[in-house]
Amino acid sequence: GQLFRLEDYRPTDYLIPETELVFDLHPERTIVRATLVVQRREGVDISQPLILDGDELKLVSLSINGAPLGENGYQATPDRLEITDLPEENRFTLEIVTEINPTANRQLMGLYRSSGVYCTQCEAEGFRRITYFLDRPDVLSVYTVRIEASKQQAPVLLSNGNPVETGDLGPDRHFAVWHDPHPKPSYLFALVAGSLGSISDSFTTRSGRKVDLAIYVEHGKEARALYAMDALKRSMKWDEDAFGREYDLDVFNIVAVSDFNMGAMENKGLNVFNDKYVLADAETATDSDYAGIEAVIAHEYFHNWTGNRITCRDWFQLCLKEGLTVFRDHEFSADQRSRAVKRIAEVKTLKAHQFPEDTGPLAHPVRPRQYREINNFYTATVYEKGSEVVRMIRTILGPELFRKGMDLYFERHDGEAATIEDFIKAFEDAAGLELSQFALWYEQAGTPNLSVSFDYDAAEKTFAIEFEQSLKATPGQNRKKPMHVPIEFGLIGPDGREIVPVSADGMEVTGNVIHLRQRNETVRFTGIEERPVPSLLRGFSAPVTLASELPREDLIFLARHDGDPVGRWQALTKLLTGKLIAGVKRVRGGKAPLIGVDIVGLVGEIVADETLDPAFRALCLTLPGESDIAREMGSNIDPDAVLASRDALVKAIAVAHAKPFAMLYDALVNRGVFSPDAASAGRRALRNSLLDYLSVAEGNPSRAAAQYHASDNMTDRAAALGVLVHRFGGSESAAAALAAFEARFGGDPLVMDKWFSGQATRPGAAALDTVKDLMRHKLFSLDNPNRARALIGAFATANQTGFNRADGEAYRFFTETILKIDRENPQLAARLLTALRSWRSLEPVRREHARAALALIANADKLSTDVKDIVERTLG
Length: 876
Ligand code: B3K
Ligand code: ZN
Description:
about 900 residues, Neutral Protease, domain 2, binds (3S)-3,7-diaminoheptanoic acid, binds zinc ion, metalloprotease, zinc ion binding, hydrolase, Aminopeptidase N
């Protein structure tokens, strides 16, 4: 693959201000007639050819200003069209006719069919699979789209923008015309045509524009789209209130399809979704499905301003739209639900997905400087860390100046393709600040580590905190500069109250934020009457790791008394992780883990505290997962020992608190009809976590089996199934529940994904055979991304002991499967393959098996660019 570099960016010689597309839709032979108004940029010589991107295209005809182009005037290959015979005038019309085959398109990029529905996916480079074009985000065009199709096969005809006209074309064909007045890059183009059911509603913007809303789904599933519609209306309102952003078209359409490479796509006025992020009701969706739908609906809607109205100059700037839009959807969910619980969930996600990226071979900056395959850069670093960087800007500026900066950004760059520099400049100008050191967060890969030590001087009544920041080398970046790290903090007195220092010397401190800028710095607080317990990184104010020499008693104190719930959770997690890691070491030495009563008591205390939100208690009760423990250990991982240590702590907590846990389990039983709201979901989360502990304490599956069969909602049902399969797999109760689930939901592949994942994640070596068997299940298909992720993805990322079998058999199976998927859908194969990115941190035997499996992929022939890029960097 070719290497693309940020420093090679150059604007195009030609622009395409207007694009007219006519689609004559047929399953195997679709004709696309593109009429482009082409504009030569000022100063560009007429001898400069017009070079357009293509991908697997078949050119039918080509003309300029109405006259067919002679064979010597151009050169066409499936992936490139170079036109040399161009008119002298600087503005001309180019007509390109191409033929494409939507049915044969299994990569799910460009125009393809999903269960008979024509749909498109153009980001990042899918539009070039429809017609030859300047397929890059800095070429903005006004689109008019005419779709012609069979009335019977495709009664619904949708594209971007507003509907203009519809009509008949004889007995079985009809057409629709759409016009999008907002200039947009080609990656935001969309078309949908098919037979679909729908629900509709409307939203009136604050300036009085009435917007017609519709969600299109498979016939019969309309009622399952109601929650998504509700989330959409709340998102539209929230963006007006929180960011002053109104919607700008007469219609907003969402379509759910069942074959989709990622979560969803923000095409202007026509969002296309993976059905997983639209369909929900009590019977089929869990609370976390509901939360995911709310977040993704909001995310795609928010892109209308951050991504669409202001887009990216080039794909290196991807975080400009993604990091910012993730930040916006995080804030939305925080406002709709419990802010603290939402923040803890974000921190867990960041640590689980982004931290391993930063410490592994695929590490890259939030704004990468080079890529071979852009689709491999839709990563947790660009999205989640990108969001954390925006959050830090708000922490540094404060909410008012942050909003002022956002307003300035919208005002300056509306209708443009912008860069990270433009974004940062808006905040610098709004706040009168200089953010050049801060901008290193976009440039330097890796997670900074802060070593912190403390010194209380009772005689001077001062409390000093000494920081040392370090950042390890990452691929292509050996030497790093110190960063600007905003550290939210609190000092807590022995009575649990916050201490307000008289002054802070040595470092910049604004309000409750310490600004770390040098490699080594010390802040000294004065007027501190008693030795305080410091709470650092409150709200997880920066994406860093913290190595503090805080004594155990202080961590216990913080877990009990920190006024910041995120701080409480962080302290508890640190204690639990330390205990779990010590346990792993003992297990590896052939000994049983030692479990102190204090930590067991602490967990029980928090769980029993009725003054706390049940969702928060559930988070505290859920021990760090096996991969969290492995990540914190960093090297020489033996997943079997990790599981043994974790199970031992679960058991100790379960046995110690069996009685109060059982009472709480009963008290939390669902009463009344199911509601997906955050408070009800929090109670279910706590109750289902208790179910796991109680089942361990009781040593039998009865309680989980009873819950499974009594459940009136998927959250409780899936949780019970999880306990049965993971704790009592192979038991009659587990088999009965699996059979009941299949009998009930066997007609619905999306729901059955839970059944596939549940079995794929059963701990232990036996899961591999189960996964192989399930691949032959009638509902399973490697071609469908949701199925592949539910079975293969879940096995590789969420089954530490099963996937990392000591004999390496699972790696070999995985390798073969990736190669199979790669033949049809390279993007999906490459994404799944990242499951092996942390192979170097395994113990030597497994590490060697994993390396050999990766080498098998690297040496296979006919690898896609996508998989080749990942495997080469992973083996690095
Ligand atoms: N922008 C899309 C992701 C496109 C991925 C292309 N490989 C969804 C989103 O982030 O909202
Ligand atoms: Zn996005």
